[in-house]
Amino acid sequence: VGEAPKQIIIIGGGITGLSAAFYMRKLLAGQQISAEITLVEKSSSLGGKIKTLRRDGFLIEQGPDSFMARKQPILDLTRELGLERELVAANPKAKANYILHKGRLHQMPMGLMLGIPTEVTPFIKTGLLSPLGKLRAAFDLWLPKRGTTGDESLGGFIERRLGREVLEQVTEPLLAGIYAGDAKALSLQATFPQFRQLEQRHRSLILGMLASKKQAREMPKELPEIARRSLFLTFKGGLGSLIERLDEQLSSIRRLTGQAVTEVRREGRRYQVRLEHGEELQADGVIMALPAYEAAVLLEESAEIQAQTQRQIQTLRDIPYVSVANIALAYRPQDIKLPLNGSGFVVPRSEGRMITACTWTSSKWLHTAPENHILLRAYIGHAGAQAWTKLTDRQLLDAVRQDLQAIMGITAEPLFTELTRWGRSMPQYPVGHLEQLAKLREGLAVSHPGLLLCGSGYEGVGLPDCIGQGRQAAEALLPFFKQ
Ligand code: FAD
User: Fold this and answer.
1) 47, 272, 397, 465: which could form a disulfide with 243 (CB 3.0–4.6 Å)?
2) Can you list the alpha helix ranges (DSSP code H) found in 81-130?
3) Is the pLDDT reported for residue 1 higher than 80?
4) Is 42 close to ligand 1, i.e. is its CB under 6 Å away?
5) Which residues pair with 381 in a beta bridge?
6) What DSSP element (H or E) covers 466?
């Protein structure tokens, strides 16, 4: 009686932290537990990497632009926020995807999942791979499965099964769009564990993909109709709608924006959380929804930690993050002669271009440009190609326009451009990542009970995975607050 309510502090107001706050509040209310939630965000606005800009009738995504449609956590959140009717599918007429090969755009053969053929005829016909490259890929049908079960690199795995040509010409450029990563350095288990399972179960990756494609047709019934029609979805008002709706729903909790957390210390059974401007908050539970390197800084000083856990925190700090940028460019239809009959193209490193990909945004997402206008988005930066960070905005724009001229023949001055730089934004899960993470979590459960880590640095960079992680962190924290 008369006891002050317990306190939960969520650090980071990106999609992970906001999801954690949303589900934490819901779980507490459901169990009639009175605890107060405070969300602390360094920048002046919520949303983290999600940033939707409305300009001259265009809808410009400066960060993510869509999400995988068949992932439950984001579909659940969409329903709980009442946003289902706002969902939009990618234009079914823009399914084709192109890849730059020896300076020219080639259509990506249908049914090529990150380079793994799931349809035979388009794979045999494609001019993207040499006859030898195709033959090498077909070896997958006969090669034995790997005996050991430990992690390996995604690139090593694809090369082992399908050969180097598939890896370099198809897998790597497609991957650049998701992780901006070097396939030879990324962990297979932390990125595409399903590939490994297919090999274990079916021996051949191609045969396994064909079998799982059949299963995919028998999708769970709870999926909204729209998620059956399109592999990717977004919202009519952009992904920013998700943040706006979460912001509204969370209006009753305390939000401190424009303030970084500078220190987290365990004292007795509670945490002392220091903010940038000197304020100290006390918490009984803490969720860190931050990039791994930021969490590592806060954790290193925070408690008496065993040397082993200290080393694991160091591995958290060592997860490489790649810097990327993107430029949105608006045009009039007469400025572009190339028929934009697809969703865009990707660029292999061997082509020696500045851009790694270009989305034909207004063709893929019809709601993003006013009538008679075209919106493109070009991407820059991947692992091992970071020299661009030293260039000025003008230099970047010039380089991108040169690439678009060479590849798409565009010489016209764009109506406007929007450049967004995202420094250290794309985590590169190293081989063994999940194992390290499990050990770290074990150590933290002892040294920091009631402190949880979640976000794109850990178990998936996609928005659905981030939402799922925020929700799991809230669920894991709940038992600490049960009377
Ligand atoms: P963040 O969004 O990084 O949020 C972390 C927050 O913590 C930030 O707001 C930061 O300001 C705050 N913070 C940091 N330090 C402190 C501190 N000390 N104190 C308080 N606050 C702090 N995913 C998709 O599913 N689809 C896509 O199309 C897609 N495209 C992408 C395109 C780009 C350019 C990028 C960069 C990512 C893309 N992703 C995409 C990945 C996805 O956007 C991210 O993985 C996800 O948004 C990360 O969310 P988060 O909440 O974990 O982290």
Assistant:
1) 47
2) 120-125
3) no
4) yes
5) none
6) helix 463-477
